[in-house]
Amino acid sequence: MTRTANLGTALVTGASAGIGATYADRLARRGYDLVLVARDEARLSALAGKLQEQYGIAVAVMRADLSASADVRIVEKRIREDAAITLLVNNAGIGPKGALLADDIDYLDTMIALNVTAANRLAVAAAQAFAARGKGTIVNIASAVAIVPELFNGAYSGTKAFVLAFTQSLARELDGTGVRLQAVLPGLTRTEIFDRAGGSIDNLDQNHVMDVNDLVDAALAGLDQGELVTIPSLPEKADWEKLEATRFSLGPNISRNKPAVRYTAA
């Protein structure tokens, strides 16, 4: 297949499998050239070859461990200096190995370095570069547990709550610059992340597990519709809008010069 559009280059992190690899396929289908980033260079190269042949696009491969600061800075440099990059899919991440109290704290530090520190640095770099260019799109992959943290490991939920809040705040700061933001909040998704964490997606209620192709297609539809926050399985957009309206209604009272009466009545 030959390309039908020139949309620039999309840089996708965590692109060797799962959500990242599926984004790579869908964006290639749309006409983007690609920069694929992950630790597994062999799998990246195999995917690159397949996408080049199938869609007639250019694909570059960057081997990087985004839990390592030096590798993050290499990818950051590419984002800042390559003016062809118009889209960042900030997808790289890992999940916990189990309940928080039973988890390995060193592993949790690695998870935070990847899910938060690397995601933050690459998104800020993209935001600065895209704002200077007057266009660009940043897609940050969060999780549904960002809004229901009680359902999962607290450290992991916290990393995804960071991604959501970060995206919402950054979108406000970038308003009027020509840069688009989206946070995607998947629920349970059939990917390798569970196997890597020592579990199996097959042990979960399959009524709550989404196919990765359906997830990415829904996320891209949300991006096309201009959504800042996309929850692929949420039937009614109005439910999210109600939650946001309630949150904003707290605004006048979250910072005042006196404590609330209930804290002083005694």
TrEMBL record:
UniProt keywords, alphabetically: Oxidoreductase
Gene3D superfamilies given in the database record: NAD(P)-binding Rossmann-like Domain
What domain of life does the UniProt record list for this protein's source?
Bacteria
Q: Which PROSITE patterns match?
A: ADH_SHORT
What InterPro entries does this protein's entry cite? NAD(P)-bd_dom_sf, Sc_DH/Rdtase_CS, SDR_fam
Pfam families per UniProt: adh_short (PF00106)
- UniProt GO molecular function: oxidoreductase activity
| Keyword Oxidoreductase belongs to the record | yes
Q: Which family does it belong to?
A: Belongs to the short-chain dehydrogenases/reductases (SDR) family.
Record protein name field: SDR family NAD(P)-dependent oxidoreductase
Source species, please?
A: Shinella kummerowiae
Organism lineage reads as: Bacteria, Pseudomonadati, Pseudomonadota, Alphaproteobacteria, Hyphomicrobiales
